[in-house]
Amino acid sequence: MRIQAYSLSHNYNITVGQGVLEVFPFEKLLASHFVIIADPVAYQFSKKLLLRKFGDVAHMRNVIFVHGEGDKRPEKVLAIAHLLARKGVDRNAVIVGIGGGVVGDVSGFVASIYKRGVRLIHVPTTLLAQVDSSIGGKNGVNLAEGKNLLGTIFPPTAVIADTMFLSQLPAKELRSGLSEIIKYALMFDRGLWKQLNNADDLTLSQILSMIPRAIKIKVTVVKKDEHERGERALLNYGHTVGHAIEAITGGAVNHGAAVAIGMRYELMYAIQKHIAPPSILAALDDLLIKCGYQLTHPRMNMRLIAYMQRDKKNTKGNICIVVPSEIGRSKSVNGSYVQFTKARDWKSILSNDV
Predict the structure, then answer these.
(1) Is the sign of the CA dihedral 60, 157, 91, 37 positive or negative?
(2) Tell me, what DSSP letter sits at residue 166?
């Protein structure tokens, strides 16, 4: 399946399905060089295919490995840029990022700044990356002061979402991506919410059937608001609390599990302020339990607020979140989807956890 994504600079195709990497016509890109930036596990899984594919096209100058969140930093980006310069990689090169969200962030950042921009192809290999982070052009790296504080919006030339990679993922990684599908359903799509709830057991085949629908939701939102001046902010649901959980646990709680907890706690705020009815929290809890998520974490205490106050989305001393108003819908207030919360709001929520 091919889904068209939209950008102010150019449109691009997201190709989804089993075996789509094998048939992607890299040779038509007429690249001077291909540079692969990859997760080591994903690269080994597809190494024979990649060597066969790139043996038929222009010279592959390097394979550069990115080893998890610890490599998502400016020093790694600059090290890769220095390497490309030493190798003589020119502006007609194509960077191919093969991996999950961290690889997408690093490869996207490098592609956006090296020689003022070279072409980029995302090959997302996790469910999270296929339905979310590979779409829309966002990339970012971390500073000591916070997560994703440096970044650009740089749409790829193409996204190749080959579902063959998902067959080798552990259940923990699939859950990490499933939380983003739950987010889409709760914020935008009541039909998808029903599909999630009606599934007796969320098997891989059932999850695969939801991927195109999830991608189309994100594509639609980004088309309306590429630079996050309005509706795209809704995609951040669960992420203010979620990023704080990732930070306070040193990454021991992965992104998807942290966002799942974050959705609960941000919804508690909406209920407290009478933006959403309490019944939504009960429905969300039931679905999260069904999908194998923890509903809270021992580190959900007052110290979390300090991490939330560092979030890049904050403004004028407010902790900024977005929330649903009902299942499948969010409404703006005074032209904004963002809720401007205070530390005292979160002290109340964290001390009265339901």
Answers:
(1) negative
(2) G
Q: Which two tokens stand for residue 88?
A: 């003589």
Residue 266 in tokens: 């941000």
Q: For the chain, which domains are there?
A: 2-168 (3.40.50.1970), 171-351 (1.20.1090.10)
Q: Grade residue 334 by pLDDT with cuts at 50, 70 and 90.
A: confident
Residues 246 and 78: their CA atoms lie apart, in Å, by 25
- pLDDT tens, residue by residue, 243-259: 999 989 988 999 999 99
Residue 313 DSSP symbol: T
pTM above 0.85, yes or no: yes
**Alpha-carbon gap, residue 162 to 157, rounded angstroms:** 16
Parallel, antiparallel or unpaired: strands 138-143 and 146-153: antiparallel
Residues designated catalytic: 116, 138, 180, 218, 228, 232, 236, 239, 243, 255
Q: What is the pLDDT of residue 354?
A: 46
> In the chain, at which residue ranges do the beta strands (DSSP E only) sit?
2-5, 12-17, 34-38, 60-65, 94-99, 119-124, 138-143, 146-153, 158-162, 319-321, 339-341
CA dist 340 → 283, 311, 322, 334, 336 (Å):
25, 13, 9, 12, 10
Q: Six-digit token pair at 136?
A: 């829309």
Q: What would you measure as the largest C-alpha separation in the chain, in angstroms?
A: 61
Report strand pairing: 138-143 vs 119-124.
unpaired
